[in-house]
Amino acid sequence: MTTALNTPTTEFEKKDRCADLPHRPRVLLGKMGLDGHDRGVKVIARALRDSGVHVIYSGLWQTPKSLAISARDEDCDVIAASMMSNSHLVLGPNLMKSLAEVGRPDLPVYMGGILPQEDLEALAKAGISKCFTTGTGLIDIVNAVREATKQRGDQVGSGTAQLARDISLAHDSKPVRKGAVRRRPRRVIGVTGSPGAGKSTLVAQLVGEFTRRARAGDARCRGRCGVVAFDPMSPITSGALLGDRLRVDFNSLGESVYYRSLAISGEDYHALPEVIELIGGAHADPAQAFDTLFVETVGAGQNETRIRQFVDFTAVVLTPGMGDAVQMDKAGILEIADVFVCNKADHPGENELVRDLRDVAGKRPIVETVATRGQGVPELLDALLG
Ligand code: B12
Ligand SMILES: Nc1nc2c(ncn2[C@@H]2O[C@H](COP(=O)(O)OP(=O)(O)OP(=O)(O)O)[C@@H](O)[C@H]2O)c(=O)[nH]1
Ligand SMILES: [Mg+2]
Question: pLDDT per residue over 154-170, tens digit each?
């Protein structure tokens, strides 16, 4: 017996509640300030994902400025800020100020968590669109997100804010505004490998290292860098949890990196060439242009090699304990590598992995990394920049 792809695997009410909207809602879930309460935000993230929403989680300890940059760059329909640390009256207005500064004063903000009744008026005055106190039903939150999801216009502002909108339209196969400049960046680097291999952590470290070198005047790191990170879209609800950007420390990188998370089914990269060119063409000034672009694939299996045709250079990330030497001889993903990254070098089996890989790598470099500690990252960036 075969099972249709859209048959849910559990009794949980996974259901596409957004199919009738003009586009998939994109919600940025953010936690600002020194607030470690992440249970609520995770509950909301799952409920929204399981209702067909594309949820971007930016992680804990965001500043109002970094959350505003994330919201602009991701072209979200609404920010959902969860506040449990009694700092909403300061951080809420600061977020509104930052949104105006980064060119998206129109972006709606919902706030929830521990919000005393007597503070709600001040938050509304500051420009927060809706407040939700504890005990809000999940379906109410889904409905509020639906309400915030309006037809997208093709003009939203200028600079990076406009780039983010252009990408949304291109990714949805809708016409991009006339006048959008398209230019392929100087280099486009694909980062692929199995789910959880550490691709996002590596990319986060690479963009940090790139930015440090750019600031120090290294000619190979001219301009700024960008990232397009793909995560999978649910075959049941079309929802997605876009969790790659959470590895990047935007509190320190700020505007130095353009980061965009996108959901796809399988290896459907049909819009990627246009997205790449829009990013490369967004800024005319060479010092501001996103001239080096990293593309992180969805966690890939042996067979998933399509990324190769869209990028100039491919890094394949492997981890210890993936199998014996026979695995190395199989056709597929190892064949598309221009550089091999043996990440999680702190795990047992690293030496065996490198030894087996040497047999198939030929002249292609093998770089050992511990992405969580930044170990091996300068060497990897050297290998990628050529
Ligand atoms: C569990 C808990 C913890 C856990 C956190 C675990 C984790 N990883 O999240 C631990 C033990 C670590 C913890 C620590 C602390 N906590 Co605590 N904690 C709680 C507790 C008991 C429950 C929170 C919870 O998880 N609820 C379950 C989730 C699912 O619900 P939720 O978070 O409320 O989210 C729901 C809604 O609020 C809403 N929602 C939330 N955010 C948003 C955002 C949007 C946009 C929308 C639409 C909806 C929405 O949707 C969610 C689903 O329905 C609350 C008290 C309470 N009953 O609320 C205190 C509480 C939040 N903690 C509090 C405090 C003070 C602390 C500590 C400072 C120390 C302390 N005294 O305990 C530390 C600080 C930790 C830190 N690093 O920030 C205070 C906060 C006071 C305030 N803000 O005025 C509370 C209210 C307790 C109290 N009455 O004093 N805490
Ligand atoms: N011990 C160790 N853990 C690591 C290392 N690199 C990444 N991790 C951890 O591995 C987990 C997955 O890392 P990600 O960077 O999200 O992996 P990914 O390949 O992007 O995952 P997907 O996008 O889901 O395919 C996280 O918990 C990281 O902290 C490493 O070098 N050593
Ligand atoms: Mg990832």
Answer: 999 999 999 999 999 99
Q: Is 221 helix (H, G, I), strand (E, B) or coil?
A: helix
pLDDT band at 8 (very low <50, low <70, confident <90, very high): very low
Q: Which one is predicted more confidently, 368 or 325?
A: 368
Please give the distance, rounded to the nearest whole angstrom, from the Cα atom of residue 93 to the centre of ligand 3.
Answer: 32
pLDDT in tens, 120-138: 999 999 999 999 988 889 9
**In terms of DSSP bridges, do strands 257-264 and 366-368 run parallel, antiparallel, or are they unpaired?**
unpaired
What is the CB neighbour count within 10 angstroms for residue 70? 25
pLDDT of residue 255: 94
Looking at residue 251, what is its pLDDT? 86
For residue 35, give the ligand nearest its CA.
1
Q: How many CB atoms lie within 10 A of CB 199?
A: 28
CA–CA gap between residue 370 and residue 377 (Å, rounded): 8
Q: What percentage of the chain has pLDDT greater than the value 70?
A: 95
- Cβ neighbors of 320 (< 8 A, separation 6 or more) are 342, 344, 345, 347, 348, 349, 350, 352, 353
Nearest Cα to Cα of residue 383 among 325, 344, 338, 343:
338
- For ligand 3, the distance from its centroid to the CA atom of residue 252, given in whole angstroms, is 20
Euclidean distance between CA atoms 253 and 108, whole angstroms: 24
Which residues lie below 8 Å from residue 197, measured CB to CB, with a gap of 6+?
Answer: 299, 317, 318, 319, 343, 344
Residue nearest to atom 8 of ligand 2 (CA): 198
What residue ranges define each of the domains in the chain, with the CATH number in brackets?
26-148 (3.40.50.280), 187-385 (3.40.50.300)
Q: Which two structure tokens, joined as six digits, stand for 150? A: 């309006």
The answer to whether the beta carbons of residues 68 and 95 sit under 8 Å apart is yes
User: Residue 231 and residue 234: Cα distance in Å, rounded?
Assistant: 10
| Phi, psi angle pair for 25, to nearest 5° | -60, 140
DSSP letter, residue 153? P
Give the binding-site residues of ligand 2, using a 6 Å CB cut-off.
195-201, 244, 247, 299, 343-344, 346, 370-372
Closest Cα to atom 28 of ligand 1: 40
Quick check: 306 and 269 in contact, CB under 8 A? yes
Report residue 213: phi and psi, to 5°.
-65, -40
